[in-house]
Each structure stands twice: as structure tokens, then as C-alpha cells.
Fold this protein.
Amino acid sequence: MPKPTNPLIVQSDKSVLLEVDNPLYEEARDALARFAELIKSPEYVHTYRITPLSLWNAAAMGMTPDEVVETLEKYAKYPIPSNIAREIVDYMSRYGQISLYKEGENLVLECEDEDLAEEIWAHKQVREYLLERLDATRMLVDPSKRGFVKHALIEIGHPVEDVAGYVEGEPLYFDLREVTRSGKPFRFRRYQEDAIAAFYAGGGERGGSGVIVLPCGAGKTIVGIGVMHKLQTSTLILCPNVVAVRQWMNELLDKTTLTEDDIGEYSGDSKDVRPVTAATYQILTWRKSRDGEFEHFKIFGERNWGLIIYDEVHLLPAPVFRVTAQIQATRRLGLTATLVREDGREEEVFSLIGPKRYDVPWKQLEEQGWIATAICYEIRIDLPDNLRRKYALAEDRKKYRIAAENPVKMEILKKIVEYHKDDNILIIGMYLDQLKQIADMLNAPLITGKTSNAERDVLYDAFRRGEIKVLVVSKVANFALDLPDANVAIQVSGTFGSRQEEAQRLGRILRPKSDGSFARFYSIITKDTRDMDFAAKRQLFLTEQGYQYVIASGNEEIWKVPPETFIK
């Protein structure tokens, strides 16, 4: 029988429609997020899709097919199509049907039954990594191809449960401080302990690889430190930029008994390999020419690493996936706020870094006070008449730039900044000409990719001390920027439809505020243009996490309305 009060409509193509204006919306959204991906989020009906990868990640975290089907049935308005339950069972049961394990010095691939083994043995893409058939269900794998065979198998729809274990790595003994060097008490939060335990899995073969998903500001670095402490082994930390490298180094010195002699930086500025080494993705992927060797990949062999941490794993460059495929005997921890990758390589993260081991909804941590309560605003403005014809005749990519650099944005921006004059404001965009114009208009410092690391540090420190109230920043501030007192972010342009960027930009202001105040995230959008189309796509991930965008026109001056008004 139909249940008209329920919010879900499950369709036979594995898409799921979720009604926003429904009392069960939030409850159903949080349940869906465990095993489905958000595809579209207009005002009234959100569209999710159940994919093989979303189901495999759910299975890796311990969810069963029955739980997925029961969740759909619980919230569905109409009976779910008969094929859906069958397909959920089919895909989720594949996780665990194929396993990799060690037998003495041999690496063995075992299939659940003979038919599956025949299919795998006959597949040309997989066969090149198999040495011989041991019996009806088992095959010998070239140990150096452990990652390659896993990736080949997931590409043909068969995830591998890897329980072949890990090398122990070079020992590195250290303790955690109860009081940090900066004089503050230090202990893990409950969710951080849960994340560490989920990855470590008692030190056995079923742990030791995978991804921890936590919001910006929730302490992903602390989780990494906790995993390092559990393993007590030499660690290589891969980071998106030098700022992140130095934050890791500072956090390790602040919260552990590791010394400066134990920790090295490997970047464009320094090539210091120590028992704990933090390196940038940029230096790893540097080469003299397009066809040249990645000279710095040698760092993976310079010590007997027992753990490799991939910070912001959703940014992992493609060449690093290739080297990761060769080091599957080393424990691998991915840290990220979102598993979304704009290049669609989520399957490579799953097969080469490992499945999702732990995540927690952003709103849940907000409710518990671990991250700031944030209000998101989308302010829609018109394109001036004198630019309409130019926009209409432009190519697609140029259309976006015309709309993104709409001069009316400057007027709205100035009003928002004036209203928030006592707050700590980040103004973020992607077009340098636009950012330079904003910095000049507000007499505010501008940080871009051309700003030296030393100059950035000076400006960030001045912002932290309250000497600078407004910073204008380009894409360099998307990641690993620790400015705890930033409480207002204004986005004037973004990287097309990048969901991960939107999440990271909101993350810049999610550190809990000492006075408990709200964080405010403004996006100024040119309506009825590509700017608005891309904004809708960028907002997808945050919508999935429970954030709603308050939509208003520029003349409504929505920034003057108390934020409590918009809290449900």
C-alpha cells in the first residue's frame, strides 16, 4: 500500500527521489547518504543514485543488503520496484566474494565459487596479473601486482577484499602528550577514537587501509596522529601543499613526543627525509618534461615506511595512484572531507587506498558543537543590460567567466563586508583580475599562487591576531588553511561545478567559535546564467550533508536577517 506521508520514491533505474518539504526529510537524507550518491538538489526534490561503488563502500563499513532494502522500504512512498532489492543484494554480495591473502610467501586470489573463478581467469584485463591457477577457486598473483589486479577487478565490477596483510615498517616509538606544547589539554574526541579504531581494526589484516571521511575543522590530522601512535612506525605523509606539510609538522611537535629531528619536510623548498616525512603532491609529480620520469617517486623507497597517509585524498594526482598500486603491502590511510572526485576516479581510491572505513554527517558534529553552526546563502543578482549581448554570443567557457565577473557583485560584496566589519572575513574566488579589483576596492591583502610561502604566513598570522579583518584569497586557500577565527566567507567565483571545492571553502569557517557564534557562507551568483548552473552543482555535496542554501536577491539584504531565523 502507498504511504503518502513518506518522502522517498525509489525508481527501477536505481535513482531515488527525496521530497525536501517532508517531516521525514532529514532522517531519510541521513539514512540514504550511507549507500547512495546525491546527483541533483533543486529546491523541492533531490535525486540520489544507488551505484555499485556506493553499495561497496556501505558493505565495507558493515552494512548489509537487508539493511539497505529495509531503509528504502521504511521511507518509500510506494512499493520499491522488484529489481531493486535483487540488484542491491547482487552488488553488495560481490564485496567479499573475491579475496587476496598471503599463503607463506605467495599471494593468493580466492573466489567464492568455481564459476566466478572461471570468469576471472578468462578475463584478459585481469589475467596478465595472474601467474597460475592453483585449483578450482584459487590463483597465484604476482605480489608486485597486488594493486594492479585489485584495480583491474573493480573495473569489471568485482571489488576485492584485501586481507594479505602489511609489512611492519621501520619502528618509530613515541607518546602522545596529555598537555600540548602550547599548554592545552589534549585528548581524542569520541568520533576521532571511533575513526582510529575503524581503520586500525585491532591491528589485523582487515584494517590498515582505507579512507576516513570527516568535515573540515573536525580534526582529520588528529585522527592521522592517532593512527600513527597505534602503529608506532615510520610514516610518509602526502599533502596538497606546503601549508599543509607545515601544519602536520607543527601538530606532531605540539601533540606528540616526536622531536624536530624525527620529522622532515620534502617539498620544493626542502628535501629532508626523516622517520616521519611530510611531502607535497606537487613535488612528487614534478618532472623535467612531459615524458620525463617522476624523479621524486624515489621517496617511496627511501625508508621502510610502515604507513602512508594521503591527506585530502580526493585531490590525489593520477600519477600517485600508479605508484600507490605498487606499494599495497604498506598500510595506507586516506583523509578527506569528501570522497567526491571531479575526475571520477573514486573507484581507484577504493581499490588502491582502500574502502571508506568511517564517516560522520557534518550536521551531527555541528549539533554536538565540534564544528561551527553554518548558514549558507546564495545571493542571486542580474547580469547588467550592457553585458547581456556579450554573454549571449560568447562560447560556453567564456559565458561562465562573464557571469562570474559580473560587476554588480562588487556592489553586493561591499555591502556584506561593511555589515560584517567586526567579523573575520575571507573573500574567495578563482579569477585573479576580479580578486585584484576586490582587494583594491577594500584595501585588503590578496593571496594568490604567486604569493611566497613566507608572505602568506605573515598575512595568515596577522589575520589570526585580528590585525587584518579581511583577506582576499584565490584557490590556494581551498585546502589546509587553519584560520580558526574566520567566521564569514564570501565566494565570488568558483571552479565551474566543483563540489569538493564548495565543501572545502565552507570548511574554512567551520572551526568552532569561542563565542559560539554562527559561521556565514555567502555565494554571490549571476542568475539565469552558467554561474547559477555551476553553483547548483557545487552545492550538491553540502546539500547531502544537510546544509540548505538561503536564496535571496541582492536587494533583499539577507545578510541583515538574524541567522537564527533560518535554523530549523
